[in-house]
Amino acid sequence: MFHFNMDAARSVGVLSLNGDLTIRNAAELKEAMSQAMDQSKQLELNLTEVERVDLTTLQILCSAHRTLLKNGKTLTIAGTLSPALRDAVQQAGFVQCGGDKETSGLWKGVMN
Amino acid sequence: MAKTIMTVDDSSSVRQMVGMTLKGAGFTVVEAVDGADGLAKAKASALDMIITDLNMPNMDGIALITALRALPNYKFTPIVMLTTESQATRKQEGKTAGATGWIVKPFKPEQLLEVVKKVLG
Amino acid sequence: MNVEIDTSAFTEEAYELLSELEDSLLELEASPQDQDLISRVFRAMHTIKGSGAMFGFDAVAEFTHEVETVFDMARNGTIPVTKQLIDLTLAARDHIRSLLDAAASGDAVDQANANRIISGLRSLSPDKKPAGGSTTPAAPTGSKAPAQTAAAKEPNIFRIRFTPNQDIFGTGTNPLLLLNELRELGECRIVAHTEKLPDFDDLDPEVCYTGWEIFLTSEIGENAIRDVFIFVEDECELNIRLLDRDQVIRDREESKKLGQILLERGDVNASELERALMPLGDRLVQAGVVSPDKVRAALTEQQVIQEKHDKKKTAETATSVRVPSDKLDSLVDLVGELVTMQARLNQTAGTIGDHTLQLIAEEVERLTAELRDNTMSIRMLTIDTTFNKFKRLVRDLSTELGKEIELITSGGETELDKTVIDQLNDPLVHIIRNSIDHGVEGPDVRRARGKNPVGKITLAAIHSGANVLIRVEDDGAGLDANKLRAKGIEKGLISADDELSEKEAFQLIFAAGFSTAAKITNVSGRGVGMDVVRRSIEGLRGSIDVNSTLGKGTTITLKLPLTLAIIEGLLVMVENEYFVLPLAAVEECVELSRDDVKKAHGRHVINVRGDIIPYIRIRDRFEIEGNAPEIEQIVISEVDEKRIGFVVDKVVGQHQTVIKTLGKNFQHSEEFSGATILGNGGVALILDLTKMVRYVEEEELHELEVQ
Questions:
Q1: Residues A48 and A82 sit within 8 Å (Cβ to Cβ)
Q2: Domain formed by C8-138, architecture
Q3: What is the CATH topology of the domain spanning C381-560?
Q4: Class of the C326-379 domain?
Q5: Which of C225, C533, C568, C570 could make a disulfide contact with C427, Cβ separation 3.0–4.6 Å?
Q6: What residues of chain A, 18 to 77, have a C-beta less than 8 Å from chain B?
Q7: Is C267 an 8 Å CB contact of chain A?
Q8: Do the Cβ atoms of B88 and C54 come within 8 Å?
């Protein structure tokens, strides 16, 4: 469900998430994110294979994004969003989340 | 993959009505005759939603909801109770125990499906 | 297993809803097309019914259901809002109230009345079929838009604030599904509020931190929106507001530019949006909206509509807390005790003479004063609820008497102590009844006198120093001083050769057993009116005054203290006894020497800069033994618009007075409004100057007659 790859040279970590990401495994998702965040200065998310998704996932990703920015790290999304995730972001009104002056929006550029 | 819904009711006619309606809408249905039966079947399968009566022998609906919420697998699963208008206080108890919503008996199949859509998506 | 539940939450809410309902119905009568009012009425009914069933008030739920059904038709435009509908609904409202009362008292209810109301309501429905049937009121089946029978309505714009409780996932609820349901109702713009989202380390993955603001454009009513949230009513904060359509249009034109930017590029191109957002965001941040989410929400709102007042209002309601009034009462008691202790601390610190202690005492004094003011302000309520009640009274009574009377209120926002407001109701009812019954003439008489056939009663509240003035003014027949005089003589209240000024003649209406109406109606009682009113107002340490112009109308003015519990007083001494005079009445203090007394030739008057002022010797009044000092002090006060002096040995100074009531057995108790504990632990009596002067006058009159 969660797959983490580290490019040691660039200190870029790539975390791939796939399958169902709902409240049932929200704790596991947080744990996986936490480890990936600790290990990388730049973290990339691969979200192309995400299936079911709910609010807990969005909250985890948004909080991670803000926290990393605060600590001088980055969180970006590689590639496109899976249709399910795209829908969820839109449904939850998270499109512009974090898209203000201080932080650049997490979903910016991947929602078009 | 079709979602699985369990209907828990000691009245076979209600189970039948609920079962038919849900199957007709493409769900997989598990039937249980009372709370204890429902709890055992919930543990044995992966349910996406539970529809339970409140007044039943062998563990009533409220107790079933409480027991299900204590299981890691059903902590966040939608549970809808079947109530009658006169059971207003029971409805409140059910909500407190962790029920997601309710359907007032008697109800029509469309109303049932509306509620399923409401809580399950 | 049936759990006993506390039903007071329901009854409290129901009584409140009923009073709102009454207001709404009366407003609706004035503007029967107002959809907002109609749905307000419907909602009140719906909530009473729904909660009634929840809390086991089946009779309430059943009866309300009937009314709701008919009002639903009005809401859908199936039947018009007529006077008949409003009359019946008002009657129904009263019946629901009596059902609630009956549930508490166990008394029987008037079933015939209920049947009459129900059959009346049913006869309004176009198909004349009995209302009700197999509806399942609490079921969420109403989420479909109600059939629109009337001409196609313009869409409404709703702003919905939905903030789930943090533990909402624990009931298997997926809030995103609710948002999707809203989308099915109409065009939605949804802004998430994620300010509460914590840092990653503190994030509980199974907690809901998000809230939403949704702008929904749809033809459905508010109830359909509420139905979406029916399962989570108790697990979220929900605020739905219909945004003003005219304003929408105005704002749309005004903010066209911004609207266009957002509409054309808003959700389509995020970076463009950001650029467009910046300056406006800054402006909003400056205006105090700090978080980016709020800026976005505000911007979205502006895009759909802008309604600043509304925002302010909801912020106010969201931050208010309800507490039982006895808790407030005990808070006031405690503050009172604190004030007393603080006075003692001051005195002790002064005696000891330690500088540090004095500084502390002063600081405590300042804090106590602040605490006192704060506590008092918590007890202050606006008077508009009381005022609103009279709309109904005026409406019902004037109809009964075949008169047409319009009630105009102003100053409803004026605040008064809760105790004062509570006790003000009955006297005001009496005064207004008098105006309706004896004051305002019937339409024919008014026409004949060249007046507007519709009479007018004005109810106004205004601030005046430490007092609030409440004025009841009518444009009726006015008081006839000659008739009053004749009546006074007839009743033996005055003697035939008494010379009364017009003003004094008016005062007669406050005498016990005085009634000038030739015909006694059941509206304003049987002559036990105004004297009772005066007594209750004076019981509140207030005063009452009447003014009238024959043929033009009558004005009754109540002067009430802002608060009852603590007053600023002037502490004085006679021998070893302490007294407090209300500082508000005190004008000045002058000396009274033996010489002055001699010059007055035994009369109790003193010449103050040319004014001859009568005085009362406290020492004599209360038979205090001992010898008066060479030079006494006269505290000149204004009582009933006259200047009167009160002679004491010594003026101690200003004193913050916490009033304790006295027992009725206390001698002279009528002349004291209470007692207070002093800093040194002693007791001072608080003088009720008005009553004391009145008693002294009566006694003197009596003595004159005896002579």
A1: yes
A2: Up-down Bundle (1.20)
A3: Heat Shock Protein 90 (3.30.565)
A4: mainly alpha
A5: C533
A6: 22-24
A7: yes
A8: yes
Write the DSSP symbol of residue C660: B
Total residues belonging to chain C: 707
In this prediction, what percent of chain C has a pLDDT beyond 70? 78
Q: Which residues in B lie closer than 8 A to residue C230 (C-beta atoms)?
A: 101
In this prediction, residue C150 carries a pLDDT of 38
Rounded distance between C-alpha atoms, residue C108 and residue C59, angstroms: 12
Who's near C648: CB < 8 A, 6+ residues apart? C572, C573, C574, C579, C618, C619, C632, C633, C634, C635
Kindly report, as residue ranges, where domains of CATH 1.10.287 are found in chain C: 326-379
Which is catalytic among the residues C68, C235, C577, C671?
Answer: C68
Which domains, ranges and CATH numbers included, belong to chain A? Answer: 2-91 (3.30.750.24)
- Nearest CB to C270; choose among A64, A70, A111: A111
Among C64, C179, C231, the residue to mutate for chain B (most B Cβ within 10 A): C231
A92 CA: distance to closest CA in chain C (Å): 6
Q: Given C22, C29, C46, C438, which residue is catalytic?
A: C46
Contact C279, C258 (CB under 8 A): no
Instruction: State the span(s) of chain C assigned CATH 3.30.70.260.
Output: 156-318
Provide the whole-model pTM.
Answer: 0.42
Kindly list the partner chains of chain C, i.e. chains with 3 or more CB atom pairs below 8 Å: A, B
Question: Which tokens is C576 given?
Answer: 């070893």
Which residues does chain A have within 8 Å of residue B76's beta carbon, measured at their own beta carbons? 22-24
Per-window interface: C 171-210 vs A, CB < 8 A: 174-176, 179-180, 183, 190-192, 194, 197-201, 203, 205-206, 208-210
CB contact under 8 A, A112 and C269: yes
**CA–CA distance, C305 with C250 (Å, rounded to integer):** 9
Compute and round to an integer the Cα radius of gyration of chain A.
Answer: 13
CA distance C460 to B24: 67
Query: What is the bridge-based pairing of β-strands C553-561 and C467-474?
Result: antiparallel
Q: Which residues share a beta bridge with C582?
A: C569
Asked if B95 reaches chain C (Cβ–Cβ under 8 Å), the answer is: yes
Cβ-defined contact of B73 to A24 (cutoff 8 Å): yes
Answer yes or no: is pLDDT of C250 > 80: no
Written as one letter, the residue type at C398 is: S
Parent domain of B12: 4-120
* Residues 6+ away with beta carbon under 8 Å from B93: B62, C3
Integer Rg of chain B from CA: 13
Where in chain C is CATH 3.30.565.10? Answer: 381-560
* C-alpha distance across the termini of chain C, in Å: 82
* List C66, C235, C307, C434, catalytic entry: C434
Q: Which fold has domain C156-318?
A: Alpha-Beta Plaits (3.30.70)
pLDDT tens across A23-42, in order? 989 999 999 999 888 888 88
C68 given a catalytic annotation: yes
Residue numbers in A near C203 (CB within 8 A): 30, 59-60, 63
What is the average pLDDT across A34-58?
89
Residues in chain A: 112
Q: Give A-chain residues touching B73 at CB under 8 angstroms.
A: 24
Q: Which chains touch A (3 or more CB pairs under 8 A)?
A: B, C
Q: Does C129 or A73 have the greater pLDDT score?
A: A73
The pLDDT-based confidence of C557 (bands split at 50, 70, 90) is very high
Question: What is the CATH topology of the domain spanning C566-706?
Answer: OB fold (Dihydrolipoamide Acetyltransferase, E2P) (2.40.50)
Q: What confidence tens digit (pLDDT) does each residue in C476-505 have?
A: 888 888 888 888 888 777 877 777 788 888
User: Beta C415-417 vs C683-687: how paired, if at all?
Assistant: unpaired
Residues of chain C with CATH 1.20.120.160: 8-138
Looking at residue B69, which CATH number applies to its domain?
3.40.50.2300
In angstroms, how far is CA C129 from the centroid of its own chain?
Answer: 42
Which residue in chain A has the smallest CA separation from B75?
A24
